[in-house]
C-alpha cells in the first residue's frame, strides 16, 4: 500500500520499470502511445488514498468525495479493459483496473489530483509500415492461425468499432494495424499468460474496408476493393479493362487534405500503357475513364469517317487521318459545324500557308469539304 509521501518513489520506480521494459524489447524503441486518467481528490484530502500496482492490474483506494471517469475504457483510450468499482472500508471507493495491452508507466500527484499515465506495449501502428502497406479496416475478414493450437485459430470479421474478438485474448484493436502487427500483438498477449513462445499468423481472406470507385468507359464500373499497395493498372484490370469507347486519358481524383474537395490528375493513356505512369491508388479515390470524343469528316476526302479526338487535334490532322483531300476538293471553303450551332468557314490554303491558325477540334464537330466548281 502506498500513501502520498511515497508517491514520488512510486513514480521513479514505474519510470525505471518502463525504461527497462522498453530497453528489453528494443534497443532504440520508437515513442509508444500513451494515455492519462485524472482522478480528482476532495479538498483537504492530504492523504487517504493508496495504490497497489501490478503488471495487468492496478488497485486504487480513494477517499470519499473523489471524482473519477465513469468509463475507464474510453478515458484511457482502451488501455483499461475493465474497471470494478466498489466501496472500501473508509466509505470511499476501491477501483480495480484491468489493463489491456499496456502498463502503468507513472503516477503523478498534482494539486488535488492523481494522474495515472498508461503506455502501450507496442510501437505506434504506422511507424514501421511503408506508405503502401495494407492496414486492416472495418468489415475486413481475417484468419488468425495459432500454430499447434487449432482450438485458438479462428476466422474473424473486424467490427464497426475496429476490434476483433480473439479466443482467450478477448477484444483487441485491429483497424489501422497491418496483419503482421496484429499477429505480433496477439503473440505477445498469448505468450504473457497462456502459451510459451506462441507463433501467430494473420491473413486477410476478404478485403472490404478500402476501395476505389471506377467509372466511365470500363467493362465493369463500380467499387474495386484494395489489397494494399494497389496500383492503377490493377484497379483497371479488376474493372475489366477499357471499353471500346474509352478515351485517350484517365482521370484519377483524390480528396484534398483538409477539405471536402478533390484534386484530379490527368494521365495519358499512352503513358499508362507504356508503364510510364502507374500510380498507387488509395481509399475513396475515383478513377474515371472519359468517353472518346469524335469529329465527323465528310465531303471531298478520300476516306469519309469519324475521327477520335485527342488533345491538340487540329483540322489539318483530322483531314490527314481520312486520307487527305480528293482532287475535286475546294480548299478555299471547308465548313466546320460545331455542336453549339456555330458554323465556321475555313480557307484551307491560308491555314497551310500559316496566314491563319489551324483550328483545334474538341469533339462533336462535323467537317464538310465542298466540291469545287469550274
Describe this structure in words.
This protein is of the alpha+beta class and 374 residues long. The protein folds into four domains: 4-120, Immunoglobulin-like; 141-206, wza like domain (wza like fold); 211-289, Outer membrane lipoprotein wza fold like (Roll); 293-371, Outer membrane lipoprotein wza domain like (Outer membrane lipoprotein wza fold like, Roll), CATH 3.10.560. The chain has seven helices and 22 strands. It has helices at 7-25, 72-75, 179-193, 232-238, 269-274, 315-321, 348-353; strands spanning 34-40, 50-53, 57-62, 80-87, 93-99, 102-110, 113-120, 141-146, 154-157, 163-166, 170-173, 200-206, 211-216, 222-225, 249-255, 262-268, 286-289, 293-299, 305-309, 329-337, 343-346, 366-371. The strands form six sheets. It has a five-stranded mixed beta sheet. Strand 20 (329-337) and strand 21 form a beta hairpin. The protein starts with 6 loop residues before the first helix and ends with a strand.
Key attributes of the depicted protein:
disordered N terminus, Immunoglobulin-like, 5-stranded mixed beta sheet, 374 residues, 4 domains, 7 helices, alpha+beta, wza like fold, Outer membrane lipoprotein wza fold like
